[in-house]
Amino acid sequence: MNSKTFFTLLLLAIAAPVAKAQFCFLPERPQVGQTVSFTYTPQTTPLATDSTIEGRYVRYGAPNVMQLSRPASVTLVRKGNEYVGELLIPRKDVSGMMLLFRNSKLPQRTDVNKGQFYVIPVCDASGRIVPHATGGQASVFTRSHFLYEAGARPDPNWVVTLYEHEILQNPDLLPYYWSDLLAAQVKQKKPGYGPKVKAGIESYLASRPTPTIADLTTAAQLYESMGDFPKANALRERQKLVEPTGSLVQKDRAMAIRNESDWTRKKTAYQAFLTEFPTSSYLPALTVLLTDGYFKNNDIRGLVAFVEQQPASHTDALMLNTMAFQLADERRSLPESELLIKRAMDVLKTQPKPKTATGNWEAEKQTRQRQLLNTYARTLEQQGKYTDAYPIYQEFINPDDVDNSDPRVTERYYLCALRTNHAADARPMAEVAVQVGKATPGLKTALRDWYAKQPGNTIAKADTYLTGLEADLRADQRDELQQLLINEPAPAFSLTDLLGRTISSSAFKGKVIVLDFWATWCGPCIASFPAMQQAQTRFQNDPNVKFLFVNTREGGPLQRVHNFMDKHPYDFVVPLDGQQKVANAYKVLGIPTKVVIGPNGRVRYRTIGYSGDPETTVNELTLVVEMLKEGK
Questions:
Q1: N or C: which end of the chain has fewer CB within 10 A?
Q2: Tell me, what's the pLDDT at 14?
Q3: Which residue ranges does the record assign to the Thioredoxin domain (predicted)?
Q4: What is the per-residue pLDDT for 7?
């Protein structure tokens, strides 16, 4: 018995019991364009007890048309213990159909015929199954997710059997299946598969008068999958010789440009790449790289000239936005900043949905447009073009969504309104920002000063006006802080400060004491100092409030603390807790730690760390101090 006959009998032996007991179809040798009627009998299958059954199927063909393998449902009609259905075989690119059955209400309950599916192979006019009718089944397992949809995995032995049968029956189809067969043998991992697969690679390449780039690429991938990187790399070098302007050569050149550290040579190499490979898939990313390079090398005029030459498809609008905003915020190259953001807006108008974008692209596009308009307004106002900037702000500012707005943008909008005599129009949004806690100190000051200048008003009235706007917010904040207040004994202490003075807790009896435990090496401690300076300044004329900045856990020479305070303009009283006795007594677990002692000599508030938000820190400490002064 020859091998061809053996494989044919093998497949028939497997399929015959299924056809008789579980699945059969008519005509028995269906052809393209025909409707196939099939009968499914679930009694001996995993669905034997199910009453709601549906079919799922895929069409399959040659590997290059496997996009056909998109699962679809087929309606079944129950007739006694059987289910019947129909499928139309298209006239083009189809070599067969594969089906599974499942509970329509519980899709995880499936019958996949022991992982082989139920198969309807297409035949030709003579009744012989058409090319790809067997290999295409294997392709469903290796090139589609149909089996995974049913929660199963392919049997590598069966996949190899299908590929080998197809190649045996149709040797001329070897170029279609050779690599898939070898890849399946790698996954099969039978003893000695490595040498066998490598021999298969060499044999196939030797049989080709001129291996195609696809052949060489696939062969390299196969070697790589087995860990033979020298042979994989050798094949890739061979690819470069066969195709000296191909993808691999372009990739090498692109990588060389990325790795070039000299800016002048990088620009030259990019121009050469652009000339040789004007349609390369690597060009958009390289163009973005060069865009970034111009900015980092502070060649802003060169950046503008470069960007204006590029097609929209090679331009990152959000990158230009970031660059333009930074330039505007730093008040440098302002005309160029305006040109960059205008270019970014032009690009966004025609930009298709990026691969990295998820969700509704039109909604995302509007969000990006608002970001770009914000930068455009910033570039205009920084040039003193307030009349041009104000309508841009109006275009993207949403007065009804202050809660989700950026407080810095709201401040800039209001200041621009002030300069263009539209303060009254912008006032409602500014007031809401104050009321909901979304107002910067600059916005509050500008709103108060504007109010004070209105006819009949004074600074005192303006202060009352601002306090009234914040009343509800502060009441809410006080309620929240009330829940955070503690009531613990405040250990007595006596320390020496940087000026040699004795700082004793007994000297502050009946006062509110704010202790800030810190060290010069502590980044968050230092970061919080501007906020702590503001908080101290608020009570600088109040004799009943005292701020002490206790240096602890320093772990170094005392001179380091002196040097730090000499370099910074903080008018802090700095007691020295070199032995950490006070820090330990006040349960300092980490720094910075702020402790507030009430007039009754008890610890009422303790917080560790720094949020990074100076205004929140100032407001919180201010409210705590005021509450304790009121006897809360």
A1: N
A2: 41
A3: 484-630
A4: 46
